[in-house]
Structure formats: C-alpha cells, structure tokens
Amino acid sequence: MKIKSQRDFFAGIMFAAVGTAFAVGATNYTVGNAARMGPGYFPLILGVITALIGCVVMFTSTLSKATDGDRIGRIAWRPLLFIIGANIAFGVLLAGLSSIKLPAMGMIIAIYALTFIASFASNEFRFRSVFILATVLAVGSYFAFVVALKLQFPVWPAFITG
C-alpha cells in the first residue's frame, strides 16, 4: 500500500496514539461494564473509538486522490508555542506555583491570561476583540463551573478575597 496523503496518514497516527494512550491510562481505574460503569469506563471507550478513527484515517490515506501526495508543510512554530504556553500559563495561574512562591491567581485572571497569550498565535491581534472574548469566557466559565456545577476552586486571587 502506498501512502497518497501524508497529512491524513500522520493525522491518523496522532489520533491512534492519543486514543491508545487514553485507553491504556483508563485501565488504571476501575472500568466496570456497561451496566455498572466505573470511572475508567468512559475514557476507555472514548480512547478505543479515537484509536479506531485514527486507524480508519490512516487506511483512507492510501485511497486518497491527492495528486501531489498531499505533503505536510512546515511546522508553524509560533502558533504552537503560544498555544502551549497559554495552557501552561493557565494552569500555573489557576493553581499557583509554590516553587517560585506564586500564589493561585484564580480562574478569572487565568482565563484572561490564557486568552491574551493564545491570541498572539495569530498575526491579527486586536486588543478589543480579545478583551471581549476573554470577558465572555470568564463570565461563562464562572456561571458554568462555580454557579451551575458548584465546583470549589479559587475564582479570584487570595490577596483580593482574603
């Protein structure tokens, strides 16, 4: 079999690898069965389905009608680094980092930081649009997680709430 679409083939590998990792990780929990599901049941099923989708995508990459082989282009390092950095900053700001004595800054500040850092991945940064998006995400997250689901985590920094 000849790979006719490199993009599809490597996307299929990524899906299969991530799905397999989730399925294997889910076995560390009690899986149970369909009638009595344990905490590992849903991640296991989701991981298996994701891995199967990856295998199907890899197979269909051999059937593609792409004339140039649908080659993979260069890696876009700027967006990749800003998106990963935004997620790391979100985690650090939400929970704090005791090794550098950074206290938990709370969900609201973490969401604003996440949104602004991730927006630098694009070449078209507009402060007003990003600010509106961050505000909508922060308010929506507050109502979804704190009000509706009643999750207990810091919303504001400790120096504000006391």
Description:
Keywords: Membrane, Transmembrane, Transmembrane helix. This is Tripartite tricarboxylate transporter TctB family protein. The chain crosses the membrane at residues 9-29, 41-63, 75-96, 102-121, 130-149. With 162 residues, the chain is mainly α. The chain has two domains: 6-60; 77-161, no CATH class. It has six helices and no strands.
Number of domains: 2
Radius of gyration: 21 Å
Count helical runs.
Answer: 6
The pLDDT mean sits at: 90
Order of helical and strand elements: HHHHHH
As a percent range, the share of strand residues is under 5%
Helix fraction by DSSP (H/I, runs of at least 4)? 55-70%
Q: Give the distance, in angstroms, between the N- and C-terminal Cα atoms.
A: 64 Å
Largest sheet: number of strands, sense, barrel closure: none
Please state the overall shape, judged from the principal axes of the Cα atoms.
Answer: extended
Low-pLDDT segments, ≥5 res: none
Number of E-type strands: 0
Structural class based on helices, strands and sheet pairing: mainly alpha
